[in-house]
Write a structure and sequence with these properties.
Blueprint: H1 22-34, H2 39-52, H3 57-64, H4 68-81, H5 100-111, E1 132-134, E2 137-139, H6 151-155
Helix pairs in contact: 1-2, 2-3, 2-4, 3-4
Length: about 160
């Protein structure tokens, strides 16, 4: 049998953060020591600072409770873009639906009088809409008026 000849496989050089100056080091320390702000920013700054101090990626991953791939990504992003990638880009919740001009238009309409839009000016002029659902269908009487004698007390504006 022929002996297998092993070829040298090129190994990627270890990921390290670029040289940081004193101002950047102070800024990283301030982020880490401050204690306020985003936990994500704090953890990413910690990864960068540990790399600048010469700690290998595997140990940084252990200390920061994350994967080595994530540490490499953070270091690469910091090397290329600086402090920008340390702050998370995501925002919680639903994205805004209306733009600022749309919101201004909505506010203007909401503050205007109904007559300006061709609508009746008093509530009694509105058509009678169904107000509650029963097994027999929609009812045009409200639930408070359907009770009869006890509705007078509940319907009064002065009773809280």
């Amino acid at each position: 049998m022929a002996a297998r000849v092993r070829q040298a496989v090129p190994v990627a050089e270890r990921v390290r953060v670029r040289e940081i100056d004193d101002d950047e080091g102070r800024r990283l320390l301030r982020i880490i020591r401050r204690g306020t702000g985003s936990v994500v920013t704090w953890r990413r700054a910690q990864m960068v600072l540990l790399s600048a101090q010469g700690m290998p990626v595997a140990e940084i991953a252990e200390v920061t409770f994350t994967s080595a791939d994530r540490v490499r990504d953070v270091i690469h992003n910091f090397n290329t873009d600086g402090f920008g990638p340390l702050c998370p880009k995501c925002a919680g919740g639903r994205p805004r639906t209306f733009t600022l001009p749309e919101r201004r238009e909505i506010k203007k309409i909401a503050k205007s009088k109904p007559a300006e839009h061709g609508l009746p000016s008093r509530p009694g002029a509105w058509p009678s809409w169904p107000t509650s659902w029963s097994p027999r269908g929609w009812s045009t009487t409200s639930a408070t008026r359907a009770c009869g004698p006890c509705s007078a007390r509940r319907a009064s504006r002065f009773n809280a």
